[in-house]
């Protein structure tokens, strides 16, 4: 993308500093991304089609909620907007980003402890990857909220017969039954929502997170996903428990929380994820 267009995007975000250097960043499978160095600051800019603006606004809101907890390093969101037939998101750039998860446990737990709300859900629609999330804020207990607004919602998006012969309501009721004993232990807490190794790392030795799919739920959903595509490791969990206890029954709940992400991958990619989701659902009834 040209220096002029990126400069116009920065100006639309209230940044008038001269651009010194631009680097296109690879690895993103949804949006284009650029590291833009100015005389005063280095920014990270994502661009997409104008129709993608809701996704960028959601990411911006999630980063704002994380930032407001003052617990864990994340990019500072500047603005999400539309300009020159492009939607964009401007944020600060995390310097010297490296892989690493072990030290994230303690600041993540502090975020879970600090980021509290009155209801489960989120004030605006957010996205997990490209998939819309039903963030309706209600007074439902956690077991009912997760079963209805995560599992049933994505099953209906997929077309449930692709995954299971069981009615969606039967699956929903089984999940509520399994999660219900945990309801009194769960208060609505800010979660990253898509916490795998590709969405976290370290910056000059400080743990950081980015690309959130935020909502207020059970902090264990982040712990569960940290084990879905290769575990963050024992030290991560030990550091987490320096701040917050992981309640009994987590291993059972982990399968249900990660069922959502398997279903989401089935929705986006199909294939073996459909078979895996079907197997997990049937295992709940044994």
Topology diagram in text:
Blueprint (H helix, E strand, L loop, with lengths): L2 H10 L6 E7 L6 E7 L3 E7 L4 H16 L8 E7 L2 E7 L4 E2 L6 H10 L12 E2 L2 E2 L9 H17 L9 H12 L9 E3 L8 E4 L2 E4 L5 E3 L2 H6 L8 H7 L9 H20 L2 H12 L3
Antiparallel strand pairs: 1-2, 2-3, 3-5, 4-5, 6-10, 7-8, 9-12, 10-11
Helix pairs in contact: 3-7, 4-5, 4-8, 8-9
Question: Can you describe this structure?
Answer:
The structure is a single chain. The protein is of the alpha+beta class. The chain has nine helices and twelve strands. The chain has helices spanning 3-12, 53-68, 105-114, 142-158, 168-179, 220-225, 234-240, 250-269, 272-283; strands spanning 19-25, 32-38, 42-48, 77-83, 86-92, 97-98, 127-128, 131-132, 189-191, 200-203, 206-209, 215-217. The strands form four sheets. The protein has a five-stranded antiparallel beta sheet with strand order 1-2-3-5-4. A three-stranded antiparallel beta sheet has the order 6-10-11, with no helix packed on it. The chain has a two-stranded antiparallel sheet with strand order 7-8. It is globular. The model has no long low-confidence stretch (mean pLDDT 95).
């Amino acid at each position: 993308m040209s220096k002029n267009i990126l400069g116009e995007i920065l100006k639309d975000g209230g940044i008038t500093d001269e651009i010194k250097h631009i680097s296109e960043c690879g690895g993103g499978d949804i949006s284009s991304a650029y590291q833009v160095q100015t005389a005063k600051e280095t920014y990270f800019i994502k661009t997409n089609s104008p129709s993608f603006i809701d996704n960028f606004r959601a990411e911006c809101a999630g980063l704002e909620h994380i930032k407001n907890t003052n617990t864990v390093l994340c990019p500072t969101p500047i603005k999400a907007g539309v300009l020159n037939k492009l939607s964009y998101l401007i944020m600060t750039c995390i310097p010297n980003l490296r892989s690493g998860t072990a030290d994230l446990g303690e600041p993540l737990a502090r975020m879970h402890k600090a980021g509290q709300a009155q209801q489960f859900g989120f004030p605006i629609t957010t996205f997990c990857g490209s998939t819309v999330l039903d963030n309706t804020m209600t007074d439902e207990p956690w077991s009912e909220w997760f079963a209805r607004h995560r599992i049933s919602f994505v099953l209906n998006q997929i077309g449930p017969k692709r995954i299971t012969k069981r009615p969606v309501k039967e699956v929903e009721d089984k999940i509520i039954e399994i999660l219900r004993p945990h309801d009194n232990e769960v208060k609505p807490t800010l979660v990253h929502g898509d916490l795998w190794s590709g969405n976290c790392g370290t910056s000059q030795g400080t743990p950081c997170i980015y690309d959130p799919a935020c909502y207020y739920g059970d902090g264990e959903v982040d712990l569960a996903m940290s084990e879905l595509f290769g575990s963050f490791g024992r030290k991560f969990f030990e550091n987490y428990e320096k701040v917050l206890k992981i309640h009994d029954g987590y291993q059972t709940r982990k399968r249900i929380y990660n069922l959502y992400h398997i279903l989401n991958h089935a929705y986006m990619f199909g294939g073996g994820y459909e078979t895996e989701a079907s197997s997990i659902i049937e295992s709940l009834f044994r």
